Amino acid sequence: MNPRTVIAIDIGYGNTKVVWSHTLDRQGKSRWGEICFRSITPPVVVDEESTGIGSNPDRVLIELNGQSYYAGPAATMGVEARALDPNYIETDQHEVLLRVAIHLAMRELGRFTSEIDMLVLGLPVSGFASRGARLNEIALQPRQIPVARHLRGNGPSSIAVTAKKCLILPQPYGGMRAASQNASADDPIYQSGKLSMIIDPGYRTLDWFVSNGMSPELKLSGSFDGGVSNILREVSQRIGYEHGTGSLEFDQIEEGLESGSINLGFKVIDTEPYRKVAADAAKREIAAFLGRIDANRARLSRVLLTGGGAKFYEAALKDKLPGYKIETMPASVMSNARGYWLTGCDALEDQNA
Question: Could you give the count of Cα atoms lying within 13 Å of 212 in the half-sphere of its Cβ?
Fold first, then answer.
């Protein structure tokens, strides 16, 4: 009898994060079954997979609504433009990423089954109340998932997969649940009457989630448009103005800030002078965020930072919140998805208790 299948997927504008297992080794160290890949779905111009010369198991072909797409860790090594669609969960891109995430999880679990016991997804805090029910409907729909070649045998190349149950969570709640996993019993995160806040700068939104103990305080939580894309936009515009390149793609900017330069072929741009542009943009966003929580700031017992954009905001938060210990989550890009998975397991255990 196969164990119950819990798959947690955090589909962001920047990256898609997937978690399917968690174990402890002999030393008690956490080992997660997880993967993170860029949220890009380039249309297929030539199906390199069918020729055999371009086959790569980390580049997954998905056919949807008459169009073929690649997605996954090896979808492309080039720069892909990303559209910021306010109706993201209804787009082909979101569906392709969801199918590829399920494919990768089942591939690593070593079994392709027609049912997922629990599928966990998330939404920004601002869209949770209005879009949660619709995302639940989307998640529960059956969908065709390609079967990995080495597990296919004489069987079909794809199977219809349905989630038996689904949980939709506010994205930063995942980070809060992950933080609580190894917290001591006297940690404020467990104490009623003490507020903990987790800040989650994503690609398109900056979210914050507040809990009283581990009970959500959604009226104190929220989000606003901004996030990493705003920082990258400011840097892109400044580079374009100063070097006459026009606005560069955000992926180029993010990679350039990490590596120290952007190579355009005809010109190499040193990005060191633009780190201050990014830092100043982060400070402005944090100032706007603090204006929204000012009335409850003094009640906070713990402040956590999570998400793929944490590296851009950590210094700004420490600067603007003196006196608070800002704790950046380990593997911050994965912490929401890890917390989703833990919450999904919690829910299954509660149902069977």
Answer: 8
Q: What is the dihedral of CA 213, 224, 249, 105, to 10 degrees?
A: 40
Determine, yes or no, domain membership for 249: no
Residue 146: give its domain's CATH number: 3.30.420.40
Look up the domain containing 31 and give its range: 6-173+336-352
Q: Are strands 30-38 and 118-123 parallel, antiparallel or unpaired?
A: unpaired
- CA gap 117, 285 in Å, rounded: 39
Residue-wise pLDDT for 115-163, tens only, equals: 999 999 999 898 898 999 999 999 999 999 999 989 988 889 999 999 9
pLDDT digits (tens, 9 = 90+) for 319-353: 888 888 899 998 999 999 999 999 999 999 887 76
Q: C-alpha distances in angstroms, 107 versus 2, 4, 40, 113? A: 15, 15, 20, 10
> Cβ contacts of residue 210 below 8 Å, gap of 6+?
195, 196, 197, 216, 217, 220, 221, 296, 300
- Which pairing describes strands 205-212 and 261-263: parallel, antiparallel, or unpaired? unpaired
117 is a domain residue: yes
> Which of 100, 104, 336 minimizes the C-alpha distance to 202?
336
Number of domains comprising the chain = 1
The answer to whether position 233 is within a domain reads no
